[in-house]
Structures are given as structure tokens and as C-alpha cells.
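Weekly structure sync, notes
Attendees: PL (lead), two postdocs, one rotation student
Agenda item 3: pending single-chain targets
PL asked that the sequence for the first pending target be pasted directly into the notes so everyone works from the same version. It is reproduced below exactly as submitted, 659 residues in total.
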Amino acid sequence: MRRVIGLTSLVLVLSTPLQAQTSTITNGGFEELGAGYFPKDWGPVGEGVAVSTEARTGRYALRIQRRKQTPMPPETGLNRAWEPGKGRGGAMLDTLRGVVRVYYRVLSAEPDAAMAVVVIPMGASGVEDTGEPRAMRAIPNDDAGDGEWHETLLPYDYSSSFAVKWVHVGIRITGGAADLLVDDFELVPGDMSVLVLEKVHVYPDSKAPDRSAMLTATVTNIGRGPSGPIKLIAALPLGMTAEGPAEAAPLVGDAAVSLRWRLRGPMKPGMIRLDAEEKGVRTAVRLRLVPRVELESALAQPSLVRPGGTATVVATAWNRGTAIAEGWSVRLLSSAGRQVAAKALPAIAPGKRASVTFTVDATGAPGKQYRLQCGLIDPEKRSAAEVWPVTINVTDSLSATPARVVGPLTIRTGNDRTLAQVRLTSGRTRRTVGVMPHLGSVTLRLPSGKIQTLTARYRLTGAVLGPVRLQDIQTDEAGGRWTFRCIVTPLNTNAVRVQISASCSARRRVIAFEGPTLLAGEQSGGAVKAEAIFPGLEWLEGAEVSSNDLDIRASHPDRPRWAPHPNKVTIPAMAVRTSTATAALYWNAYSRWDGVRDRPQPVFASPDRIEGRAAHRMGLMAPSAAHGWPENGIMDPKKPDVLLPANVTWTLSGVVQVM
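Predicted structure, written out during the meeting:
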């Protein structure tokens, strides 16, 4: 029996070197090169991983370049060398508890790049199938370009997991492009404290954002050993002071403490460095004070202008950064890109807005349209950082006679369109709440590829009992005969149902058929919003703009909510309350706008940044995102279209109410 036990022991001992399991990070400095001039015991993840002579120590380091491409690969990085699914550890570690030390230098990193040191738990089959999370420690993007080697420590512990057999040690980069050097991986045994500075933010003072702010940070001991007293050091830009703690009490493993400092001094662009030092080991984080200026809106008031009149375009920039923005300007360009006017913005404190105003003379006959572009100019790049469209229409319909009064609508036909002024009746007074800028409009792509817009222009007849029925026939440039029909049914003094339909004698590619559309605040002097609601998607107050990123990341696909999928709308209604009144649009989500397909497409923009109008847009259109048209296709520069078969009628209907 002893001989059998001895033989078994011999087999176990011999099996260890055959599987090449290791309790240390072999070749942690990348000095031993193997086949393909790549370091032994290591393997690349993705492309762009290669040896570099820009080493911290010795001859070599490893450079990990995540290059910009479309689409971006899922991840780029570094693993230990091993054969997946073979049940062998290769160069992976069989030490399931420890601390990884590595040095890094960030050459460059885009804002959306995410870099991290990782420890990956692996199962007995040699794949990541244990159900245990990866241990990760982020590498700060703000270290980019500083030319320094930084030490980082990552503790991990899988010793209590029966599923974990080995661990990978490596690097991962996801998201945007980055360029990273790493060197001198080392496994540190035993329990020790490891401090991390996280959740570091600067919050400008709302009352004095140009000279005061709050700096906050959390110090966490992610190690398993207790720390000693923690010394805190803040290096600040010239002229700035900090009032706050200089030391924090010792922290046991996994404990944290949140700290804050009051910053005083000019909030100019610069760098804050915060250090936490314990037992001679220092961890640091950098936080850049930078302006982040956005052109929040460029809005015309009014957007419907009588011939010879003027419109005012107000461009508003918002500094969402942490430093004063200086030297920015706004340019107003024609549709051909020619500069119409330019104005400098005043200095903008963090969190504040600044505006400039342009005046546009509406020369030309009714039907002329000014399609302008308003661009925010970055003082460093001297180019447009952001551009919004501005649309101004010259029309004589606002004062045309005769006029038909139907409920809250006063319908007028000029030389270019039929529109309806929306008025609220209160006692013996009627005041304008907004305008329906048309009673039917089609934008189509002709067979030649040219884009044309037709706007209904109805002939108004004498007063009749019951619903008002209107019809207009127009011919597009390719000879297609379009028929517009509008039925206006009064419900009471302040509510009316508007049904608009369109059809063509020939097949056409339709970009947008616009039905009932309401511009709350247009021509009323009351475009200032108090509140707006688009159920399930928007609830705005004051100066908040629709489709903002206050509650959702700007890059998230659901952030734009101009023309969302109809299923996202919880109640088929939208309303805006201005300083003048409340205006609303309701519709039946089950109405079949082409006779077959339901769920017409709602459009909501408060204010109307789609067309650059200070008024607040509520409308219905077709085609619909419920049937293949892209969400927010109304903002797509490619102008997606769908086929309208010959003699097929599209119909959109809604209730307009004011109160």
C-alpha cells in the first residue's frame, strides 16, 4: 500500500511543472522575448499589443495601443499565456489571494476610454466560467501625457471559491482609443492596506461659481490589512486655497471615508492633484479644472415672419465644466456655410449660461425660407464645436383675410400656406397661445433625388355649420398630383379636432408627412416655458430643454427623444405650459394612419431645437418608428424615406386644446 501512495505522490509532483502553474508573475518585466518578439508567459488581447523600449526598468516594457476604428473591438489588452479550454494553467497564477503591483504610463486616452488592471478568475477547464467577478482597478485617464510612471496595487481574493483554479493577471482597455505602457508586474504576498482615492469631484458653488467650489473625495482601503493614519495633500492651481482635513483616521480593510474641502480662488483652467499617503506609500489622483461649453440652443423668435419683418435669433451656451470659459464665440452661417454674423460670448462661470443675439431681416416674398446654422466656436481649435439649425419662414398668412374661426383656431390662408392661430378664450378676451404653422405638409424625395416640400394652401369659403372641410391640390416638380384634405371639428370654445390627409397620383418616397402640429408660444410673446410633459419620456421645468442628458448619458441611444418609438409614450398626449397659457395635443395611438398601420409618430421638442424655433413643438407625423422608420429620423441628415404608393391616403388626426 505504501508503494502505491508513493507513486501517486510522484505523479502529483511531476504534474505541476507539466501544467506550468506558477505562484509568481514570471517575466513581469517583459525582458524575456519568445516567438514573434513577444514576451514569454504573456499573450495579447486584440491587436496593437507589442514590445516597447520605453521601459521603466530593464530594456523592455509592453505597449498597448487601442486604435480608433469603426467598429471598435470589444476590448484590447494583455493576458497570461495559456490554452483556453485545455484544462491546463499555462502561465496563469495558482495563487488565489494576493496583491498585484504594476507600473503604468498613459501616453494618450480619449475621454470615453476605460483602462484597468485586471485579475480574472478561471475554472479548472481553463475558461472564465466560475461565476466570480473580475477584480479590477481603473487607470485614470487624467494621467495621460504627464510622462510619469505610476504605481498601482490591485488586491484580489478567490481563496474561498471552489470553482476558481487559476487567475489571469493583465490589462484591459475598452471604449475609446488609448495608448498605454505597462512594466514590472509583481505579486505581493500577504495582507496589506491598499488605498484608493475615488469619487473625486469638484462642485462649483451655485452662488459664486467663478471663485468658489466644493472638492469631494472618498478614500477606500481595498486591501485586507488595516492602514495607518492617512496624510492628505492637495496641490492646487496658483491663487487657489483649500479648507479641509489634512489627515484621516486609519481604515480597516474594505472601509472608506468621505472627505470634502472648500476651494476658494479664481476657478481658472488648471489641475488639482490629491494625494493620500500611508506607511510611506502614496496614491494620487488628478482632476482637471476645465470648461466644457455646449451650444445648448439657437432659437428664432418669431419663426414665422411677415414680409419685411425681423426675427431675433438667441444663441445660448452652457458651461458644464469646472472652470471659467473664456474666448468662445458664436457664428451665424447661411445654408451654404457663408458667415452671416459673429459675436463673442462673455466669460462663462462653471454651471452658468451666456447668450448672444442676432437680428435677421426677413426680406423676400411669402414662401421664402431662411435655413441658417448657428455654430459655437472653440477658441483653441477656431472651428465650430457644435452646430444647431435655425429656420425662419416668411409668410403673409398671419394677417391674411378672410379668416375662419373654429373653436380656438383662427384659420388664415396667405400666398404660401394655410395656418391657424391658436387662441384662448377667457370671458370676452381672446389671446394668442401659439400657431399651427401649417395644416398639412409633405417633404418628399423626387425620382431625380431632389427634395421638395409641399405645404397645403386651402381656399377658405364662407361660414358653414358643423365641421370645416378644406381641400387643396398641388403638383410636385416631377408631375405627381397631391391632394391635401383637412377637417376641423370644434369640440368646445378651447378645443378642436384636426384631421389632415394627403395622397399622390404617383408613387413617391416620403421623408415626412406632417399632420397636426402646434408651436406653443409662437407669435404670443409667451414662449418662456414653465412646465412641459411628454408622458413616459419628458417632464421639464423652466429652462430645461427636451432630449437633454440630465438623467441619461449623452451618448446613450435613448437620450434623443425628438421622435421616439410610439411604444415609449405611456399616454398619447403632450402639453406645454407657458407664461401665457397651457397648450396640449392628444391623439388616438390606435388610429391607422395609412389604413393598415397604427401608432402615428409623435414629435416633441421644447423648445423646438429641431428647426431652431423658440416656440415649443408638439406634432404628429408619418411614417412611424413603429413600422421601420428610424427613431428620431427627423434629425437624421440622411433624411430616411418610405414609399407612398400611388393613390394611397395617409391620415393624421389629433385634438388641440388650450386652457
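Discussion points:
- The chain is about 5% helix and 50% strand.
- The two ends are 97 Å apart (CA to CA).
Action: rotation student to compare against the earlier draft before next sync.
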